[in-house]
């Protein structure tokens, strides 16, 4: 592969970098996507590349209704327009959904081929989007074997999984290791409002033990951690309802975030992103505008102190409310 996942995301022993999530690129339900936004999304992509953000994460299920696959298609189109030297430095990662009709060791063949075509002929990191252990345990192993085949054949650069808890993660890691294929990454919801992965015995601890890279999706809790609670308006739809429900319980947490942000001349979102990085996770915030890229990239210029991280840990783990758990998350 031109630029395998193994070469990006922070050197050994250093804090992880920051990637870009593209769930909103094509999603109408939560993010109000419209094709008229594509020029701004392309400018966002170009700004991210210019700022040194190298990892772009998408999925074959991203994009609602007639825009299914739109996120991959946009990412492929934007990356294809780059000069080869810039394009080769990127890591394009996608997740394949274990839909009920995707069965057997070759169950992903057509889906993988379609994703690779949309992404311009390259997939640096291919990921199982979620575990089927809770509802169709017989489906998962053959699909993972098929993805491992694709990595061995050089069709994808590396193999990762998403939405797995520590029990399932250890079992999958062991199974792949027995056939000589590395499990490169785990992607889970991780933020100050979804801190379960950092609890004792959680996946953050296990990833350190097994040498698996941890990727934090929704590190800004759908944007709630990036905005002051005294904001005059809420988003429309489900996001607004969630913000109104969680907001009243976040006063103390956000006050502490504000103090830390002020001491570093930084934003609230930078504090939230650096909290993930302090726990060894690469955050992949959803970015839709160039100014959001600048804000994310600025977080790379500083780090939380141990004391700041511990104060945030105490507040996050003590919250009585939090982000809804992903229904596909396995134990």
Can you characterise this structure?
The chain is 40% helix and 10% strand. The protein is of the alpha/beta class and 331 residues long. An eight-stranded parallel β-sheet has the order 1-2-3-4-5-6-7-8. Strand 5, helix 6 (166-178) and strand 6 (185-189) form a beta-alpha-beta unit. Helix 1 runs parallel beside helix 11 and helix 9 packs across helix 10.
Features:
12 helices; globular; 331 residues; alpha/beta
Radius of gyration: 19 Å
Strand order of the largest sheet: 1-2-3-4-5-6-7-8
Please report the total strand number as a whole number.
8
Estimated share of beta-strand residues: 5-15%
As residue ranges, the low-confidence spans are none
What's the assembly state of these chains? single chain
Most strands sheet: 8 strands, parallel
Give the overall form: globular
| Percent helix range | 25-40%
Distance between the termini: 33 Å
Q: Kindly name the structural category.
A: alpha/beta
Mean pLDDT: 93
- Strand-and-helix sequence, N→C? EHEHHEHEHEHEHEHHHEHH
Instruction: State the helix count.
Output: 12
Topology of helices and strands:
Elements: E1 20-21, H1 38-50, E2 55-57, H2 70-80, H3 84-87, E3 91-96, H4 109-118, E4 125-128, H5 137-152, E5 159-162, H6 166-178, E6 185-189, H7 203-210, E7 213-217, H8 237-246, H9 251-263, H10 268-278, E8 281-283, H11 290-298, H12 306-318
Helix pairs in contact: 1-2, 1-11, 9-10, 9-12
